[in-house]
Amino acid sequence: MTGNDLPTARIARAIAVAERHADLNAFLSLDAAGATAAAQALTRRLERGDRVGPLVGVPIAVKDNLVVEGMKTTAGSRILSDFQSKFTATAVRRLIAAGAVVVGKTNLDEFGMGSSTERSAFGPTLNPWNPRYVPGGSSGGSAAAVAAGIVPIALGSDTGGSIRQPAAYCGVVGLKPTWGRVSRYGLIAYASSLDTVGPIARTVRDAARALAAMAGDDPHDTTASREPAPDFTTTLDDGVAGLRVGVLDGWLDDDVTPGVRSAVRGTANQLASAGADVRSVSLPDVSAALAAYYVIAPAEASSNLARYDGVRFGHRTSVPVTSLAELYSRSRGEGFGPEVIRRILLGTFALSAGYYDAYYGRAQAVRAELTRAFLAALMDVDVLLGPTTPGPAPLLGELQDPVTMALLDKFTISASLAGIPAIHVPTGLERGLPVGVQLMGRPFAEATLLKVARTVEIHSGFERSAS
Amino acid sequence: MSDATTPAGLQWETVIGLEVHCQLATTTKLFCGCPTRFGLAPNAATCPVCLGHPGTLPALNAAAVRLAVRVGLALGCELQTVSVFARKSYFYADLPKGYQITQYERPICLGGAVPVDLGDLTREFPLTRIHMEEDAGKLIHGERGTEIDLNRAGTPLIEIVSEPTLRSGDEAAAYLKELRAIVMALGASDGHLEEGSFRCDANVSVRRPGAALGTKVELKNLNSFGFVKRAIEFEVGRQTAALEAGGSIVQETRLWDEAAGRTRAMRGKEDAHDYRYFPDPDLLPLILPSEIVESERAALPELPGQRRARYRDALGLGRYDAEVLTADEETSRYYDAVLATGADPKTAANWVNTELKGRLDGRPLSEAPVTAEALGQLLAALASGRISGKLAKDGFARMCAGASVASALAAVGEQVSDVSAIDAAVSAALDATPSEVAAFHGGKTKVVGFFVGQVMKAMKGRANPELVNSRLLVLLQARRQPQ
Amino acid sequence: MIDEGTVIDEGTVIDEGTVIDEGTVIDEGTVRRVATLARLELSPGSVPGLVTDLNAFLGLIAGLERATLESATASTAHGPTAAWRADELKAPIGAARAVAGAPGGQGDVFLVPKVVT
Predict the structure, then answer these.
(1) Which residue of A115, B53, B104, B311 pairs with B48 in a disulfide if CB–CB is 3.0 to 4.6 A?
(2) Is residue B163 included in any domain, yes or no?
(3) Confidence band for A465, pLDDT divided at 50, 70 and 90
(4) Among A63, A84, A86, the residue to mutate for chain B (most B Cβ within 10 A)
(5) Does the residue C70 lie in any domain?
(6) Do B73 and B166 fall into the same domain?
């Protein structure tokens, strides 16, 4: 290891680049002192010849809805603007144990509710490819931090596309693992049955390394699977010969841009020439998935966000109140932004007396049906290939209407509802902005997914760096 | 005011359903590793999970599941292979997450019954369900405002819900007493009423016999079995009076005010019960492995009702003795241990209920000064005739003072059953008191007791009392002057 | 910890009769009622906009009604059965840390305006 590769040097570089890109507003907090100290400790260990983890000295950024003890965690919300957690999220803890160094916490749509990072209480993040555009969301800060070259790996969370969609808009790799693959302990919940923690990375290999470090069961999250977590990096270069790839042609009939359509078709051709058995697959229309998602996610959110009541932590109104109800209503009304309020209202309505069966019950039935359809399709093929987004990143301020914003997730929510792993791989540019493809796989078959993604990465020849 | 026992009240039938919240006897909370121990300093037993901090998740305590299964098996419930935890949403200062994790549509147990001894007959009061849930915290109303202590938040409970088949305050009290004895015998709960380990709400309504169910009122703040009985009786009176006056009953929650001897309406909770239940996505369905059910079934102890029946039917004890000996787990365990030494059931019952309990004077059996085995040996000496009842009591007193059985028996000495020795003592006593002998022969048979005392005194209490009696009568007869 | 294979829960059967009334419209009264239930004080000017937005979402959700369901069952959750926790004590964080940073924290308790029952 040369001096330039030592943890101290790498962390110093990452912090310098972060500071140079401060105008992107990718980070809500940078921890230069903590990261430097951690890097020095790792450097000493390396110099002593101590055993170190596989990610030694790798600077990482952490979405600010994952708690890290000793740092603020805001979830992009005023209601948690001064919140300090008393523990560290399992996923972060494992990356640190593998040698990674947390340089800072990244911006996001408040509580993960949004697709542009404009719904952060702390201002929008800008797209490193062109600051007039959004980076996507909700993990926009993490995607921007990777795209700007600040860190090679950042943690995101994905509930309906919040890793894959910003990865697409920022031209980086974004992996949403199988639900249960990575512990959610320490992830501030948005919609628990859909929430996942995953990496956003410069390369498929870095995504695989991060997943390998994070995956596995956790006594703190009893929904985390005991499915063995293989070393996802060892099979990355095995190629796709003989693998069956199902192309979701039906999704390309939708109003997707030409760049996205040709990204999917081009990738299908490249995979075929790399030896994969590529065929067309049809799956249910995305409108039912969208409908189910916009019942289940707000319903769970309305419950998950009930704990922010101004009593034990977080914002409490400074207006004198005379009752508990008033304390709650004022603290919450002041602390939550409009998108969060909208979704809490929608979710509360969907669960309220007289509406539960029609909305939540039926949404769960639709979800079960959709899951069956995806799992059935994945019996016949190893991976599914389709678009991640309808097009490249929208302009800042373009997404005022909440339903228009919701439609940006139309291709990502299916994998979230079905609980299956999915990855975005960038393949090219359209109007100077990145576009790419989405691959979806069988539950816990991330190794296959990553192998195919690696092949796509090699064949796309995509120039990774933002300007 | 009308009352259920007045002639007017007899036209009304009382309908009572009970909901019992029973704290499970686990070491840690339902979803985190914090202690459930009572009496800790405020908020000392809290962690990010039970404080509802962002990013935390519930991890189900296996021991709580086992105890719920045990209670379900003991009460003859249908155990559900799949049960589901749900979130019950409402905002309150004692509820950290804004929802309580409980079981709603799919509880762990359905059906079952509580067998209750009602004087001459045992009645089975059917259950609707038993579900698992977490407890809330505690509010302390002070001058600065309301203080919140979350030590109790997350403590595991089962809620045992009866069908509305109870008909009186007495039945309700008997049901609760029996249910508490059962969960304690199972080791499923410590049953402490004053610490809130066993709490009850009652749903009470009245109706004309055969008519549809009346509007029910939920009674809370029932902190003892006596409160339950009195609150129900008051409420039945209040409802029948209202109905007879042509009024109607409002569905509401009422609190029992013991000092005032009446129920009063609780301030209405807002949002009238729109709890927005849905399955908790942080907890997968609870799948009950059959090994757990079978191992719990195999380890089920004898229940208080079964034990009472055994004491009465197999051992021939009277209702009173059986009742007292099964009143708590320790007493019946002690009694059974005495029996295990081969003691006669009735003698052993007398000794435990009279001699031992008398010495304990209300203290628990764990403080018994004599072990069950030692008492058994003492009773064996009594049964063999080696010692008399009186000597046995003397010996018991010595044992209570710390003596071993052997040294106590040695100290009291053996009973003398040698006829010539007794005859000698009897003759000496009769010789010394000729006027009493004459009185006897004159018809004052009561003086026999006096002679017994004299003989016993002369023999230092060791004479076999039966022999003394019979020899006295023989020798007195022999001294009768021929007429 | 207890462990035991994958079980697919067949879940709750959804009553076929429960369908979304396509005419369901959220009005200002509903928004206010739901906001009270969710303990959210709405700024007075925000209600009309919320009515519009929530009705737009209802339009999106109407896709539920059009979805064809082969079998009308909702799974309660997917995946394998959960692990359980052994009944072993873990050190609590203690009152001082629990209350540290609480907006209404005072000594070893949390504090709110007086609750009347």
Answers:
(1) B53
(2) yes
(3) low
(4) A86
(5) yes
(6) yes
Inter-chain contact A291–C62, Cβ cutoff 8 Å?
A: yes
* Any domain includes B126: yes
Convert the pLDDT of each residue in B379-388 to its tens digit.
998 888 888 8
Q: Based on the structure, what is the number of domains in chain B?
A: 3
Domain that holds residue C70: 12-78
> What residues does each domain of chain A span?
1-284+372-467, 290-358
Q: Which residues of A touch C105 (CB under 8 A)?
A: 312
How close, in Å, is residue B193 to chain A by CA atoms? 29
Q: Are residues B393 and B463 in the same domain?
A: no
- Kindly name the residue from A138, A183, A416, A460 that is annotated as catalytic: A138
C14/A365 Cβ within 8 A = yes
Partner-chain contact B93 A324, CB within 8 Å: yes
Does residue A63 have an active-site annotation?
A: yes
- A307, B98: Cβ pair inside 8 Å? yes
Q: How far apart, in whole angstroms, are the C-alpha atoms of residue A100 and residue A53?
A: 8
Residue B114 near residue B124 (C-beta atoms within 8 A): yes
Whether C105 is covered by a domain: the verdict is: no
Q: Which of B382, B412, B442 is the last residue of a domain?
A: B412
- Domain end: B238, B271, B293, which one? B293
pLDDT of residue C8: 38
Tell me what the mean pLDDT of segment C17-40 comes to: 82
Nearest beta carbon to residue C113 from set A321, A367, A371: A321
Record: contact B53-A192, CB cut-off 8 A = no
CB C58 within 8 A of CB C27: no
In terms of Cα–Cα distance, which of A13, A121, A15, A12 is closest to A65?
A121
A162 carries an active-site annotation: yes
The answer to whether position C3 is within a domain reads no
Q: What is the CA radius of gyration of chain C?
A: 23
CB pairs under 8 A between A and C: 195
* pLDDT value at B482 more than 70: no
User: pLDDT for B99-127, tens place per residue?
Assistant: 999 999 999 999 999 999 887 788 999 99
- For testing the chain B interface, which of A185, A364, A417 should be mutated: the one with the most B CBs within 10 Å? A185
Which residues of C fall within a CB distance of 8 Å from A321? 113
CATH of the domain at B432: 1.10.10.410
Find the domain containing B473 and state its range: 419-478
Residue-wise pLDDT for A320-364, tens only, equals: 998 999 999 999 999 999 999 999 999 999 999 889 999 999 999
Model confidence band, residue B165 (pLDDT cutoffs 50, 70, 90):
very high
Answer yes or no: do B189 and B318 share one domain.
no
Region of residue C36 (phi > 0: left; psi between -120 and 50: alpha; otherwise: beta)? alpha
Q: What CATH number has the domain spanning A1-284+372-467? A: 3.90.1300.10
CB atoms within 10 A of CB B82: 16
Please give the pLDDT value at position B460. Answer: 81
Contacts of A363 in chain C (CB under 8 A): 61, 64
What is the separation, in whole angstroms, between the first and last Cα of chain B? Answer: 78
Active-site hit among A162, A225, A331, A460: A162
Cβ distance B271 to C39 less than 8 Å, yes or no, reads no
Q: Establish, for the pair of chains B and C, how many residue pairs have beta carbons separated by less than 8 Å.
A: 131
Residue C83: inside a domain, yes or no? no
Does a structural domain hold residue B2?
no
Q: Are A291 and C81 in contact (CB under 8 A)?
A: no
- DSSP code of A357? I
A302 touches chain C (CB under 8 A): yes
